[in-house]
Amino acid sequence: MAQQNTGASQLAKLTRPGALNGGTDPRALYLKLFSGEMFKGFQHNAIARDLVMKRTLKNGKSLQFIYTGHTKAEFHTPGNSIMGNSDGAPPVAEKTITCDDLLISSAFVYELDETLAHYELRGEISKKIGYALAQKYDRLIFRSIARGARAASPVSKTNFVEPGGTQIRVGTGNATNAYDAALLVSAFYDAAAALDEKGVSSDGRVAVLNPRQYYSLINTVSSGVITSGLINRDAQGTALQSGQGVVEIAGIKIYKSMNIPFFSTYGTKYGSASATNPGITSPTNVGSFVGEAVEDAAADVTGINNEYGEETEFANSCGLIFQKEAAGVVEAIGPQVQVTSGDVSVVYQGDVILGRMAMGADYLNPAACVELLAGAAVGSSGNAAF
């Protein structure tokens, strides 16, 4: 058996393209490349991160968000000392969000497979890991907002009634109404009015629909249901095709996502029309990741320290409209990537690529949360307040 010279002098002569400035770590630059690919995958797919209140968590397991209720103005009586409003307003409450357990996605890359592959394997795997983390991230936040739409205000001081969440039914028929553009537009205006009535800021109002709802709105522009003023003219004619054409309805900017709870699935649901199915025929060959069932993510599930609800709680949910204060997310560890090296790589002749993050989410101000429902009345089984 041939001997392999692994002396320090021999290794020093080798050119290692992954070493930083000829350093001792032969994979220093690779790690940065993989990290960039993973982070790009996360950023391109996580839309909720910039739509809610995000805080960094350090030196603790949870973070408190302060909620301040309304106060009022009153006339001053000359000679009276000013010691705050006579009714003790504004009332203050807090919402605590705890960091869930470490969220990970990983893959093992066998070195020989990587050598024989005619494509850049690690970068592709890193992007898919970023996608997986983004998917879970958005799903937890969207579930929190849906729960907030059914919750009362955190302020419970006597004689102070603060507004809670809002649920709006799209149409009065079965679940097929979820795709009716005219009914969706009407629901948007109802939601905007409700947010105005509850004193929610108009800054940062957004909606998240599933892709078919989004394109249904775009497809009806020519019919006059949606006016041309809602089209992004800066896109120079590509707006309708790109899926970025609808700017806003009633001051609410619209996003599309496959991660919203949609009739107890994520993003879309196929099958015959009913009270809990919008009746869309499957395009076939959709794979196992399209229309995944909403899983149990209650606080008693291992790894979860907040309450994201059970699968049965989203039977008629079909969209979200909210303002930035609707929910909060804490991050103890932002999206990161780790790669094994050294002796571990030698023993297993490959590397584990690990994406990780530590976060937690919950609703903050229920008044800023609106849940769209179809096929069942507001407050019915599966849509009731918690």
What does this structure look like?
The structure is a single chain. The protein has one domain: phage-related protein like fold (Alpha-Beta Complex). Helix 2 (28-45) runs parallel beside helix 4. The strands form 4 sheets. The protein has a 6-stranded mixed beta sheet, with helices on both faces. A hairpin with a 2-residue loop joins strand 7 and strand 8 (252-256). The relative contact order is 0.21. The protein is α+β, with helices and mostly antiparallel strands and 386 residues long. The chain is built from 8 helices and 14 strands.
Instruction: Please name the CATH architecture.
Output: Alpha-Beta Complex
Task: Quickly give the structural class.
Answer: alpha+beta
What is the class in the CATH system?
Alpha Beta
The number of distinct helices, counting runs of at least 4 residues, comes to 8
Envelope shape: globular
Which bin fits the share of residues in helices? 10-25%
Mind telling me the C-alpha Rg? Answer: 25 Å
Order of helices and strands: HHEEEEHHEHEHHEEEEEEHEE
Largest sheet: 6 strands, mixed
β-strand amount: 15-25%
Instruction: Tell me the strand order in the biggest sheet.
Output: 5-14-11-6-8-7
Termini gap: 70 Å
Mean pLDDT value: 83
Instruction: Predict the CATH topology.
Output: phage-related protein like fold
State the low-pLDDT regions, or none.
Answer: none
According to DSSP, the number of beta strands is 14
Summed up, the domain count is 1
